[in-house]
Every structure is written in C-alpha cells, then in structure tokens.
Design goal:
CATH architecture of the largest domain: Sandwich
Structural class: mainly beta
Shape: elongated
CATH topology of the largest domain: Immunoglobulin-like
Largest sheet: 8 strands, mixed
Number of domains: 2
Number of helices: 5
Number of strands: 23
Order of helices and strands: HEHEEEEHEHEEEEHEEEEEEEEEEEEE
Distance between the termini: 58 Å
C-alpha cells in the first residue's frame, strides 16, 4: 500500500510538472510580438514637447491624421527581397505601407530607419547620402511653423523579431520618433510704462514685425547616420542660408489695472547650430516704436532642445531679463501612441 501511495504521489508530481512546463511554454509563446501572417505593420510613438502651452511643433494628434505619411527603410542583411524603402501612410485608422512588406521569418535580424516631415517625401537616395533642407523664414502661423518640424528615428536593429520587446508591439513594428531640430521661444514682458502711457496699446495685434535674424536656416539631414540613440544627423549648411524668421505668436496676456505687464510668447523652429556673439537679433514693433535685442555671448543650439529667450521690454529699451537664456529637453514627457490596435 505504501508503494502504491508513493507511486501515485510521484505520478501526480510528474503531471503537475508537465502542466507547469506547458504553462511556461505557453507563457513564452504569448510574449512573442511577431505577426502570425508575416505581414509587416507599423505603429508610431512621438515624444511630445514638454510645455503644455506650446504649439510650435508636431504632436501626436498632428501625425495621426488621415493622409499623413513617413518614409521607412528596412535593411535585411541576408536578403534584398526582404529589404525595403517605402512610404507608410495613415488611412484614418492604421498605418499602412503603400507597398506590401513581409518579414522573411521570425528569426532574421533587420535594421529600421524612419523620418517624417510634413510636405516632404524623402527618397531612398536621401536616406543614404543625406537630404539638403531649410527651415522656412515664414513661420508666422501655427500651420506654417509645424511644417518645419522634422521627426526622426535613426537606424535601430531588431536582432530577433520573435523575442523583440522594444520595437515590436502586438505584431507591429514600432517607430519611435523624436524632434530632430531645435525649438526657440522668445517671451516678451512689456513693462508697465506701456500701459501707463497708452492703455489702448494693449492688444496682441499691437506687436508687429516680430523677426528672429542671424540663424543659419539651411541644414543637411542624414537619416541613417546616428548622432545618438534618438536622432539622425542634422548639420547646419556649410554655406549659411540667411533667413529672417517671422515667428508665430502663440500666446498673449493683456495688462490689467492690477497687473500692468503685458506678456507675449513667440515660437520658432530653427536649425541646431553655433551662433556667434552679436549674430542673433530679435526685432519687433509695438505700435510705431521699434525694438531690438542682440546676443552678447555665443549661443549653442542642440538637437531636441527647447530654448527660451525671455526679454524685458521697457518703453525705450529691450533687455535680457534675470532668468536669462534657458534650455530644457524638448522630449521630457511621453507623447501620444499614434498607432491603433
């Protein structure tokens, strides 16, 4: 009897072990993000600007619009047949390649590179050797300004699609975009002299001809040349492209009797670059009065950074206020998931 008990106990233990093994195998299989039909599909993520009030850049909701598109390059080192350069377009519900794309299998490694810019269709040649681009001088409206934003995912490697967790999600290849240029905001703090001298001069439309001069508007973008884990390479044009940027007024707060300082914010997208002392000028008019400010120290603008230049405007002068020139990451907070499941 004791032998039988031992036998049954051993059999039960073996059955439990088998079940546990089956569960473990099933759990491992459930973790695979590879699509069962082998069709390559896409979802996108964009890390959005940090400040909630800023609008001077592409956001998830902008990209996730019917007809928007990006270019993607897939390199399979063992097969030209399963290597692609393609345009992926949003059809209102999901991202669909214009030409069908297939995985070779769930084990073969690939590299992935992608770029997005409103109104620009990159070519395979431009991905490989670089695209020569400029930021427009006229950024005076939100729509015009957003057209300057460049989103990039530099070359990433998926070593084994069957176990990839970062760049594979629910059978889709994840494109993680980052802003590749620099964002430059200028805030104006209008001293109470304006309100005291002329209370009527207290409207957003009273500030005119707001211009940022002295930056190099030309640049070369190399999507497949990686600066770091987030960006393709952006290099200011060797022969500078001059541009007087008409910035977008994104916010204005009128002075009141209790707070007699009007404030205004102007946003622009510029090329990452070195700006020599005395080269950058911000100029504008308030009513009929002209104002300007020029940097006295060299300025370095880096990729993916959000810069704020706070100016105090007296009735006769413009000065850099006590907060001075500040910089934050353009990508502090996670953005929208632009894909659909």
């Amino acid at each position: 009897m004791r032998f039988k008990n031992i036998f049954f106990a051993a059999a039960a233990a073996m059955a439990l072990t088998a079940c546990s093994s089956d569960d473990a195998i099933e759990t491992v299989q459930q973790k695979s993000q590879f699509p069962e039909d082998g069709v390559m599909r896409f979802t996108t993520n964009l890390v959005d600007p940090t400040a909630v009030t800023t609008r001077a850049s592409i956001t998830g909701s902008d990209v996730n619009q019917n007809g928007q598109q990006f270019q993607v390059k897939i390199v399979n080192p063992t097969s030209a047949t399963y290597s692609y350069f393609n345009t992926v377009q949003y059809d209102g519900s999901e991202w669909t390649p214009i030409n069908r794309m297939l995985w070779q299998n769930d084990q073969q490694s690939i590299t992935v590179t992608a770029a997005y810019k409103q109104g620009k269709t990159f070519s395979d040649y431009e991905f490989i050797v670089g695209a020569n681009l400029t930021v427009a001088a006229d950024q005076s409206t939100e729509a015009k300004l957003k057209q300057q934003d460049l989103l990039t995912m530099p070359t990433k490697t998926i070593a084994n699609p069957s176990i990839e967790e970062t760049l594979m999600q629910n059978g889709k290849l994840v494109i993680n975009f980052y802003h590749a240029l620099s964002k430059l905001d200028v805030t104006l703090d209008l001293a109470n002299e304006f309100y005291k001298n002329d209370p009527k001069l207290n409207n957003a439309s009273d500030i005119t001809e707001f211009t940022i001069s002295g930056t190099n508007a030309g640049y070369q973008f190399k999507a497949m040349e990686t600066v770091n884990e987030n960006y393709g390479t952006v290099t200011a044009a060797a022969t500078p492209v001059a541009a007087d940027i008409l910035a977008n007024q994104s916010a204005f707060t009128a002075a009141t009797e209790t707070n007699q300082h009007s404030t205004a914010t102007y946003e622009s997208i510029v090329v990452p670059q070195q700006i020599a002392a005395g080269a950058l000028t911000v100029s504008f008019k308030i009513g009929t009065r002209s104002f300007s400010w020029t940097n006295t120290e060299a300025i370095t603008l880096e990729q993916g950074k959000h810069y704020t230049l706070p100016l105090t405007v007296g009735f006769d002068t413009t000065t850099l206020n006590a907060r001075a020139f500040t910089v934050t990451s353009w990508e502090d907070q996670p953005g929208d998931n632009l894909g659909t499941e």
